[in-house]
Amino acid sequence: MSGIVIVGGGQAAASLAAKARALGYEGDVTILGEEPVAPYQRPPLSKAYLLGEMPLERLTLRGDDWYVANRVTLRVGTKVTGIDRAAKAVLIGDERLSYDHLALCTGAVPRPLPVEMGAEGLAGIYTLRDLADTDAMADEFVAGRNLVVVGGGYIGLEAAAVASKRGLTAKLVHTRARILRRVAGVETANAIREMHRAHGVEILEDIGITRVLGEGRVSGVELADGRILPADFIVVGIGVDPRTDLAEAAGLVIDEGIAVDEQGRTSDPNIWAAGDCAALPGPEGRMRIESVGNAIDMGELVAENMLGARKTYQPKPWFWSDQFSSKLQIAGLCTGHDKVVTRTTEGQSFWYFRNGHLIAVDALDAPRAYMIGKRLIEGGKSVTPEQVAEATDLKALMA
User: Which of 83, 136, 232, 300 could form a disulfide with 250 if both were Cys (CB 3.0 to 4.6 A apart)?
Assistant: First the structure.
């Protein structure tokens, strides 16, 4: 067997395989997933699935019949142990699987709490990245208990929202000056913070944790100012690191992730990477985009380029987060903005400009603003801050 071999069982892997078949590729397509289940949606894990509002079968991206009908070999519970680049084969223990093109869609792993905090070996401390993580912590969400969330990104805030809805006391500790610092603007962070506080979540920013308390099982955390927060369990959401161990052992270039060129190719012309593990060339150095949208778009582009398209990847970042009854939708990246326009009609939306160009829209319960902003950004249409002011009918911008 040769053809296309995909290591990883997430959104990028599933999208790559589907695109290759849609383009008429007739060779073998094999997905090697380490988890014991077929590729599934990850965003609901910290939202609807954790709340019990989405069953497991609805998480799955494609049914078993799709893999059969499209001649995609799906091997779950399969750990790739090495890559023989000279022989163009992946190693699965003693087994060797040949490839013409190899795609690394290995994703990322959550960062644990620093060892010096004393958390190692304590029960009741969780990260949230895959189905097993969510299933492991689900029984902890019992009304009246105390949850401490460490980290003020999407995962931490979504876990705090679930806890509050379930009747727990939730406190979120963020070591940096504000929540969502890496992924959203100040205005958006302020709105999300106020929403959480209105639901009883206590958010503590710009303060560190000195140690985790407990014997055998976590009982609390001690903050840098000496305060003790009781904790029946802890959810850690302090970011992720790309899974590069397989690529590094194979001698591929690693730079902020698995280094790829504009087409998604690694330093080996027969090996590609897509999704959270891939580090793209950017204007200020290499960058990784951790989102479902990037996993889908990049996976599909890599499939095209494997078949000779030679297309340059142009990321069009978009993100979303469900918290309480609200939906935050983000198009673009607001990094480096020099002007913000706020709209409060039909929800709240924040329009970010740099040098007079629209670069991002953060929309909170404002789906129309999100869709119009996304189309403007992706279409490269020039609009001014005055054109998106509060009194403007946004539909006129699409004329």
Answer: 83
Measured CA to CA, the distance from residue 307 to residue 21 in angstroms comes to 11
Structure tokens at 105: 């869609």
Calculate helix-pair angle for 154-165, 186-198, nearest 10 degrees: 20
Distance of CA 197 to the CA centre of its chain: 25
pLDDT in tens, 45-77: 999 999 989 998 899 999 999 999 999 999 999
CATH 3.30.390.30 in the chain is located at 325-398
d(CA 34, CA 101): 19
> pLDDT at residue 78 above 70?
yes
List where CATH 3.50.50.60 sits in the chain: 3-109+240-307, 112-236
- CATH class entry, domain 325-398: alpha beta
The residue among 117, 131, 121, 24 whose CA lies nearest residue 76 is 131
Q: What residues have CB less than 8 Å from 110, skipping those under 6 apart? A: 127, 128, 129, 133, 236, 237, 238, 239, 240
- To the question of pTM greater than 0.85 for the whole model, the response is yes
Percent of the chain with pLDDT over 70: 99
Helix, strand, coil % over all residues of the chain, rounded to 5:
30, 30, 40
Alpha helices in the chain (DSSP H): 11-22, 48-51, 56-59, 64-69, 131-137, 154-165, 186-198, 245-249, 292-306, 367-379
Separation of alpha carbons 389 and 385, rounded Å: 6
**CB-based burial label for 285 (10 Å; 0-12, 13-18, 19+):** exposed
Alpha-carbon gap, residue 274 to 276, rounded angstroms: 7
User: Is CATH 3.40.50.1110 the right assignment for the domain spanning 112-236?
Assistant: no
CA angle 202, 207, 209 (to 5 degrees): 95
Which pairs with CB-CB distance under 8 Å and at least 24 residues apart come from 370-379? 370/329, 370/330, 370/331, 372/397, 372/398, 373/331, 373/332, 373/349, 374/318, 374/331, 374/332, 377/316, 377/331, 377/332, 378/316, 378/331
- Residue in the structure block whose two tokens are 């140690």: 211
